[in-house]
Amino acid sequence: xxxxxxxxxxxxxxxxxxxxxxxxxxxxxxxxFLTDGPTAILSMFQIVPATNELDSNxxxxxxxxxxxxxxxxxxxxxxxWLAVYIWxxxxxxxxxxxxxxxxxxxxxxxxxxxxxxxxxxxxxxIWGPLLYVLGGIFTTFGLVGEQKLPExx
Length: 153
Description:
The protein is mainly alpha-helical. Helix content is 78%, strand content 0%. It contains seven helices and no strands. The longest helix is centred in the middle third of the chain and has 33 residues, at 56-88. The radius of gyration is 19 Å and the shape is elongated. The relative contact order is 0.20.
């Protein structure tokens, strides 16, 4: 299949946008923390406390989990915002590099902390990194291809 650079950029932008939507939706689970308290976060990570009374370490872990989810939602919003810039051709190179670096760090941390430790099953965890890799490949192809096109006269 022969993609033009502008189509490749749009496919890459769409991949980054979907990455953002996925992470925003997962991050919105922090709402359960706000409504149902710390045990809601623990049940999300499949940890069931013996009692409703949490010791201080376990309670601190729930706050860390809530922080993780809120950060994830923020990274999702950032990814969607950058994807719109790439799609529209506004600030494409900065958006491309920020997407590659920041989203790459987020996904690498996720794989190291959640996938390798088997907290998140691979069948569910594959979608974020897959969308990131597709976004990176297509936007790279689009940017490199655009540089090779002759300038309009």
